[in-house]
Design brief:
Radius of gyration: 21 Å
Strand order of the largest sheet: 3-2-1-4-5-6-7-8
Helix content: 40-55%
Structural class: alpha/beta
Distance between the termini: 20 Å
Largest sheet: 8 strands, mixed
CATH topology of the largest domain: Rossmann fold
Number of helices: 13
Shape: globular
Order of helices and strands: EHEHEEHEHHEEHHEHHHHHH
Amino acid sequence: MLIEKKKIGRLIIVGCGLIGTSIALAARKNDVVNEIIGVEESLVDFKRSIKPFDRLEKNIGNNLEGDLVVLSVPVSEMKNFVPQLSKEIGTKFKVITEVGSTKRTLIESILSLKKEIKLRLLDSFVSSHPLCGSEKSGSVSASEDLFKDATVLISQMDPLRKSNDMDELLNTKPTVDFENEKNLKFVKEFWNSLGAKTLDFPIQKHDSFLALISHLPHLVSFTLSGTLSKSEFNNLAQGVNGKGLRDTSRISGSSPDLWVDILLDNKVYLIELMEQWDFYWEAMRKALVTSNKQTLKELLIEASSWRKNFNSKN
């Protein structure tokens, strides 16, 4: 179900980089808002991002009011916005969502609030994560079709109501049964109107899942490109290569500034996965050292079989 045209009076997007500006472009293209305001402190992005916005502000505290606020800032900056937004929710801002690649800093920031403030914020807060990033970055790389057919993970924040810290939250039974169905539906329909499909996902499992499907693959790609950069064929490989290298190294072209925050914020799950990676890597190395063709083939078959069923679950 798509949001009726002009259902959203004012959309406020905090952070006008790739994702934030793409949201503005898609919302403009699909004609689902009356007004789009961008909030961007960076003067570079501030100047480049003007096209899809009705106006730009440098600070969300400039007497802004909105029907939907989308936080599209680096994960390390979430903690700077949560206290400010929590004071205005229900008065200036009706519904808030965010698009962070990790949720740890966000969750810890919310859990640090006083109970009554936390509960008021949670009444209107829905977490989002569109799985459609790019190795490109900045508003100049934004696209009005970035969210077309993309999956957006939607996590209601209800489990935080009864949790006092991260450990307690992680021990809470995952659920996709939500109290605030109205705001949940509103956020889902917003993403649907941009061309995306949504999937309910428990907030407690978000970071462990993303470590597996996104953050570890980026680490592997960064490691591959780093290895190549130290090779005697460093320069030659950049001009003479095959599709395999281009495919596996593509995401290592992503913004280091963005990814250093993501990797550090999710280091707990990443370190666990890296230990599993080491196990398989060592098994491969040992099979090669001993010329154990049977073991090597079994390892390759296991990996290949999983990849061949890659999209069969969708």
